[in-house]
Amino acid sequence: MYYIFDDPSYGFLAAAAVEIGALIYISFSQRRLRHLALLSGVILAVVVWGLDRSVETNREQADALTRKIVEATVKPDSGFVIGALHETMEIGGISRDQMSASIRTFLRKKQFSSNSIKSLNVIKAEDDQALVEFTAFTVFDQNGDYAMAGMSTSKWQFTYNRGRNDKYKITDIEMISINNEQPPVDWKQEIR
Known about the structure:
By secondary structure, the protein is of the alpha+beta class. The chain has helices at 3-6, 9-28, 39-54, 58-72, 78-83, 96-108; strands spanning 90-91, 94-95, 112-125, 129-140, 151-162, 168-178. It has a 4-stranded antiparallel sheet, with helices on one face. The chain has a two-stranded antiparallel ribbon with strand order 1-2. α2 (9-28) packs antiparallel against α3 (39-54).
């Protein structure tokens, strides 16, 4: 939905084409107000920019939510992270309620000094589901349980479905790699 707003560059290219057409028009026209034609490309560009700013696409929603979740792990804001979990979420036999308790405990200990996204790719963004893959660079807090690790780079995949409030909510989390190696087979069980 709203594919034109995922990348407004085509709208800006159309505005540039209109502007070129306006330049040609004013060079051959004898009308007194011919210079007003130069405003047509500018007006079209402003309209495209305004529409792009006013419409939040599925892709932009999935991107923004993923970035906010990663930021919330540093603050730490367990309420936001838990609120981003889908009502029916179950990962590796762990229910949403069990996951919520684990997240509260984990973030209460302030495990991360920083956690930032190096790259993010929205693989799929539809009305009912989104799939996001991202690479995070994490620096562990010196007083946390993982202080010995120092820092790590991990690649993740979040699957989102629409929740009750029509917003994307996480239904599945996959760790693809950690420090360019396969994650431990039982990493989901360690969440408990």
